[in-house]
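Quick one - inputs below.
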Amino acid sequence: MTDPEQKDGAALTRRDLLLGAAVAGGAALVGLPAVARSQAQALAHVVPPLVPIPEDATKLLGAPTSPVGTRSRFVTASRTPTGEVTGTSFTPLQDLTGTITPSDLHFERHHAGIPLLDPARHTLTVHGMVERPMSFTVEDLRRFPQVTRVYFVECSGNGRGAYRDPKPDLTPQKIAGMTSNSEWTGVRVADIMKEAGARSEAQWFLAEGGDACLLARSIPMPKAYDDALVVWAQNGEPLRPEQGYPMRLLLPGYEGNANVKWLRRLEVGMRPWMTRWETAKYTDPLPGGIARQFSFEMDAKSVITSPCAPRTITKGWNPISGLAWSGRGRIAKVEVSTDNGKNWHEAELQGPSLPKAHVRFAYMWEWKGREQVLLSRATDETGYVQPTRAKLIEVRGKGTDYHFNPIYGWRVAADGAITFHGES
Amino acid sequence: MTDPEQKDGAALTRRDLLLGAAVAGGAALVGLPAVARSQAQALAHVVPPLVPIPEDATKLLGAPTSPVGTRSRFVTASRTPTGEVTGTSFTPLQDLTGTITPSDLHFERHHAGIPLLDPARHTLTVHGMVERPMSFTVEDLRRFPQVTRVYFVECSGNGRGAYRDPKPDLTPQKIAGMTSNSEWTGVRVADIMKEAGARSEAQWFLAEGGDACLLARSIPMPKAYDDALVVWAQNGEPLRPEQGYPMRLLLPGYEGNANVKWLRRLEVGMRPWMTRWETAKYTDPLPGGIARQFSFEMDAKSVITSPCAPRTITKGWNPISGLAWSGRGRIAKVEVSTDNGKNWHEAELQGPSLPKAHVRFAYMWEWKGREQVLLSRATDETGYVQPTRAKLIEVRGKGTDYHFNPIYGWRVAADGAITFHGES
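Output:
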């Protein structure tokens, strides 16, 4: 064995690594616009021929240090479905632990694909009812006081399938994978409003993205002065392109689409703009032909991520673990039932339980071979309790299109096979 | 524009993406063992031909959803130096924000490369002074109660260059890049000891890794019953290979090498094993021919990561931002000086300030064009205050080899150019 402090062993330079890379060949990506095609190629990694796993890894030197690491070949977690310019990819919640979502597995919801933006040219313009209309690059915003906070983002359509059509083969990814949790860094919208001199009588502001559909949402001004941020970083690094690079709006606890990505414009005014994204979309139909509009806050919710479908468990200890979150503040309590809701037991919250952030809960459960139904129920600090599906249908109807947070869980058969249990 | 709810637009499947990938060609990787060579190839990504940035990104559809995201082409953060089977790569602290280190940028310190381990075959054996010797796979450990906590890891040699030879061209990566901070998930060593029936009179345990040098460290038993963990996940996903996949020891606050990676053995006994990794290495020479041995705890430390060398700043607000941490608990206070230590101002801690974890501090600073020296000084909850370099040299001598935490910072010249300032 070489001396661990000697640096003169076999050396592999960064240039060697680049020499080792091949350019992605032309693939069957016809039918996509040029940027989409090129970006898709950028997402395709080299798949090298794999060396066999050594019988005894202690008998040979391993791999060298590298500029940027890659996952183990045994880790296959990925978002699904994919390949859609207008679509959604879901985070594989069943493959994850803790509370932070790896940035490259954060769920996606694009309405016109991921735009390719140069941070030196991309600006955020603030105008309307302000004393001093202004534009800022990310570099300009870095002159402001910076804030780092952990918050979840959740698409308001998260859980639609499980609510409307609770099939037994659903997984955590399918029932709740349109939420992810990150440590965000940016600047307070309040400071931007102060810098631009937003007029005190202003009631709403419009946030507009720089993608091909110019997604735009109207937001009440009090949110700007509460906890709204313009962020440029996520989990310690610059935002990923699919999360709004170079900057996005971050409205803690508000439905995902209001957290406008590729943010380019904030307009200050007196009333909502009634964009298509708050009228034709993201307004919730209710029974009786009426609708909920500007239903920004995401209700408290929980999901058991382990054990879950399609696993088959064996007898003995099977720790129940999952995520809970609320758009209104901290999660105060998560209860778990192992008998389809007859009895509830308080789970351990693996703190700190931060406001408007995922918290992981855990409950030790020993399975003895009986058929059982596992459920979880979250309560937030406002006292709001996650409702049953029956209760939600009673209030909202089965046809409602957004904001689904019923209690659900997993049915464990006598042979240990697990299926989704959507009725509560 | 297509209707955002319609999913029938141009679709790119996962198979198309794989078709788009090319296999890494043979490169100049001679001189490396087969596993190292193959792993290095696995680390080389496709570099596709880049499309030009569109003049107006709102005028064309963007990239589609993808299984696993990649960074923007404008983000170039990477570890250095690289390519060493026995060596270190440093985290680019100046490119990061917040507190979480992206897993693929976590610093590396390998003594015999990264072993290639199959999680189905890799086991942790517990033996020695125990009632029931046992072996566990990761799947077995998942039956235990799980714990998720945020902790830093820091190499005990972090800062050696800045201490011994404080040159003006040093960067945050070079002076402090051998520390990173992650959310870890695993099981308490205390629970493993209880399961195996560790004898109450046992005083130490040995932790041995499954790499080619069988790195092994002796750890006092009280740490096992305090906060020691065996972890299999980092930042929500399975450990990265270079961080110990499939499992590692995590000793919060202890010097990095004691957090044994690729953990395969815990032996319980009465006295330290005096391995080469705690005698020839990782014992600190002091003046007078004596030495500090088993100096596990990392002392409180701080580093300003922005502004920093080699940047040149312009007049106006330049927020001072950095990281602080202590191996003995929470950071209680970080002070910043902008006049080379004459006056100190308390910085804002961007909480929560968690025990034995990085916390980010911030201090608003307006630069008016004068030459100034920026310093930071951390105090932890035990009252320990980060010392000056002069004080540290007085106690430890200039030749000491580990545990460097002097106050240092950055000199801002009258033209805004920044260089490292290593004397305090």
